[in-house]
Design brief:
Blueprint: E1 6-8, H1 13-23, E2 27-29, H2 37-46, E3 52-55, E4 70-73
Parallel strand pairs: 1-2, 3-4
Length: about 80
C-alpha cells in the first residue's frame, strides 16, 4: 500500500532510538519541539508524502499543527499524561 511510518517526537535521541527499535518505524525525528513539528511535517510533505498525524493530543492538536492532511488522536481513558 505504500504506507510509511515516521515517528516525530520531542523525546531525546537516546529514547527515540530505543522506541524506534521497539516499534520499527521507517524513520524517526527526535528532539522536535511542539512549535517545530509543523515545519518537520511540511518537510515530509515536500517529499511527496501524504501525512496523517497520530498523537496523544497534548502537543499534537494545537493550531500550529494544522498542516497535515488528516489527523487521528489517541484517547486513553484514565491515562495520566
Amino acid at each position: 500500500m505504500g504506507i510509511r511510518t515516521i515517528m516525530l517526537t520531542g523525546d531525546n535521541k537516546k529514547v527515540a532510538n530505543w522506541v524506534s527499535e521497539e516499534l520499527g518505524p521507517d524513520e524517526y525525528f527526535a528532539e522536535i519541539l511542539p512549535n517545530e513539528k509543523a515545519t518537520k511535517i511540511k518537510e515530509v510533505q515536500a517529499r511527496g508524502l501524504v501525512v496523517t498525524m497520530t498523537g496523544d493530543g497534548i502537543n499534537d492538536a494545537g493550531r500550529h499543527l494544522h498542516v497535515h492532511d488528516s489527523q487521528l488522536l489517541i484517547d486513553i481513558p484514565g491515562a495520566i499524561v
